[in-house]
């Protein structure tokens, strides 16, 4: 098996609905995102997927989330913008392009706290 990892980041603000504590207030994060793809067959060049393709897709998704108020994003109007749900959102969007190669998405909201989504 081969596993690829691409890391990027974005900054945004949010607050958590139905939460008691500091995170119920408006605040922001510099989110770090790790995307993992996995497969057992390489192409004729010897690549699972070209890193530039993974980076391009991830950048499109993160540009959509960068420097916005996540609670007003179409998806997060009805889904609480937790790290867990952000990881799932990015995973689902990446899966549209990379289908059965998607392994997981890890979203770091701080240096020592992250959520991972996988199927």
Explain this structure.
By secondary structure, the protein is an alpha+beta fold. The chain has one domain: 6-pyruvoyl tetrahydropterin synthase/QueD (Tetrahydropterin Synthase, Chain A, 2-Layer Sandwich), CATH 3.30.479. The chain contains two helices and four strands; from the N terminus they run ββααββ. It has a four-stranded antiparallel β-sheet, with helices on one face. GO terms for molecular function: 6-carboxytetrahydropterin synthase activity; metal ion binding.
| Second-tier CATH architecture | 2-Layer Sandwich
Order of helices and strands: EEHHEE
Mean pLDDT: 98
The radius of gyration over CA amounts to: 15 Å
Task: Describe the SSE topology.
Layout: E1 2-14, E2 27-39, H1 51-65, H2 83-98, E3 102-110, E4 113-117
Antiparallel strand pairs: 1-2, 2-3, 3-4
Helix pairs in contact: 1-2
Q: Could you give a short description of this structure?
A:
This protein has 119 residues and is of the alpha+beta class. It has a single domain (2-117), classed as Tetrahydropterin Synthase, Chain A.
């Amino acid at each position: 098996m081969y596993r690829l990892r691409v890391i990027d980041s974005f900054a945004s603000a949010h607050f958590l609905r139905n939460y008691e504590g500091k995170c119920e207030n408006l605040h922001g994060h510099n989110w770090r995102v790790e995307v993992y793809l996995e497969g057992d067959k390489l192409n004729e060049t010897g690549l699972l997927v070209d890193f530039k393709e993974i980076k391009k897709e991830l950048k499109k998704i993160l540009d959509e989330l960068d420097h916005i108020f996540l609670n007003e994003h179409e998806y997060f109007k009805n889904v609480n913008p937790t790290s867990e749900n952000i990881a799932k959102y990015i995973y689902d969007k990446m899966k549209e392009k990379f289908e059965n190669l998607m392994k997981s998405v890890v979203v770091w909201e701080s240096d020592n706290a992250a959520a991972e989504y996988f199927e």
